[in-house]
Design a protein that fits this description.
homodimer; alpha+beta; Nucleoside Triphosphate Pyrophosphohydrolase; Arc Repressor Mutant, subunit A; seven-stranded mixed beta sheet; two-stranded antiparallel ribbon; 5 helices; 28% strand; DNA-binding
DNA sequence: TCAAAAGTGTTCATGATACACCCATGT
DNA sequence: ACATGGGTGTATCATGAACACTTTTGA
């Protein structure tokens, strides 16, 4: 069809990483501003071609550490987009991942190769390059579904947190309010979190701090 | 690392299709016997490289029609396997799909390029090539999870079927018996199936025939 | 008349939902 | 003393689980 898609015996393989974090009461995505032509001024999810000696997952981790300076985050394969004409540069098959990082320690790395790199609220996205609008909405869908039956929110919270913090994360992702008593009853009944040492003071009554029992993916019925 | 993995600027992209069907009270997978060297005599899921002008999904459908003579089946992307050394022939990134086909009309196509092509019960698999043991168990896991909250079993049944047929499909996939009354109550309460015209006679009391309300993927809580 | 699968309701246990007040702290 | 978020229990409702007998047909 297109000239460029005939050019390679094999398609190019890339990864795209949808990085989510919660900040200022909002769910945000990390985006990079494009400098090159057909998408100049558009924004894209961090990504790039894989190297011949790295696995897909290694490539995704490399993107995370190169573009956002992040290691040890929750990372899950999302979907592989393989339409013929999705990339104007040629035939690129791209595997999307999504990553969750805690609100603390959000340090995007700017580089000369790309324009700006910034966080955007998911309800307020800029013009997106490629099929990245689809990629992000697919990631949002998956995230919303998976917080209901796995412990992946551990990726969005700091090591210690209050039950109110945890509840807020759920409310933000699901875009709806939850009942405080029912939420706490449920969470405390399923061995998801355990009390941490101290309490956190604020301007008001200090709250008990908790941490996750396991900081590794597992399946639990939560909602 | 390996010589062959350095040879291409881009990895090769392939698809593998795990084809499930139910036959003779068993869940079966379609496998092809390998003729070429390192895996001679081993069996593999149907698959192959994509062409430069077809999407991943088109490639998967092409495999289905070439290897099994099948069209219009339920097909879902499963996972993309991107380890560096998963294929001894070189760097191949492979997207696995899984397909569901009704027990009727199982007509595997033999070809000169491959050895035998046959159905195997999933509890009784032969020696498998590549990482196809993983691929199949991943597909089984997904299938078992998804029949609980979607209508995908429509892909495994003929156009008309009895409620007992439907229940058997669930029992086979989940490897456990279900209560007949509870199963029927649930199924009939969720607008999944509707009565079809006739009844089916057998050696015994004839059963009411049903068909699916929608023959297209959708989400419904079933179990 | 017998064998084999079809069909049908009720009870009980469990989990989900709805709901309102007092507490501890900093200012 | 007041404003702010932290923390707690009960009653009701809906859903899932367990369970056994009668019916229809062909042989």
């Amino acid at each position: 069809m297109k000239k460029s898609s005939q050019k390679y015996k094999f398609a190019a393989v890339a990864v795209d990483v949808v990085v989510f974090s919660i900040d200022n009461g909002e769910l945000k995505v990390l985006l990079i501003e494009m400098k090159k032509k057909p998408y100049m001024g558009f924004w894209a999810v961090p990504g790039g071609l894989i190297k011949s000696d790295e696995s897909l997952e290694q490539a995704a981790k490399r993107q995370l550490s190169a573009k956002a300076g992040l290691k040890n985050v929750y990372l899950e394969q999302l979907y592989t987009f393989g339409e013929v004409n999705r990339d104007p540069f040629g035939r690129v098959v791209s595997t999307a991942y999504f990553a969750l990082i805690p609100s603390t320690g959000i340090k995007p790395k700017t580089s000369r190769e790309y324009g700006d790199i910034r966080w955007f609220g998911v309800k307020n996205l800029p013009r997106l390059a490629y099929d990245h609008k689809n990629v992000i909405s697919y990631a949002l869908e998956r995230l919303g579904a998976k917080i209901g039956y796995t412990n992946i929110v551990y990726g969005l919270l700091p090591r210690e947190f209050t039950l109110s913090d945890l509840q807020k994360v759920y409310e933000i992702i699901l875009s709806k309010k939850l009942d405080k008593r029912n939420f706490r009853k449920k969470v405390l009944s399923i061995n998801l979190v355990k009390p941490a040492s101290a309490k956190r003071g604020g301007a008001h009554r200090p709250a008990r701090l908790y941490k996750f029992v396991k900081n590794r993916y597992h399946v639990v019925e939560i909602l």
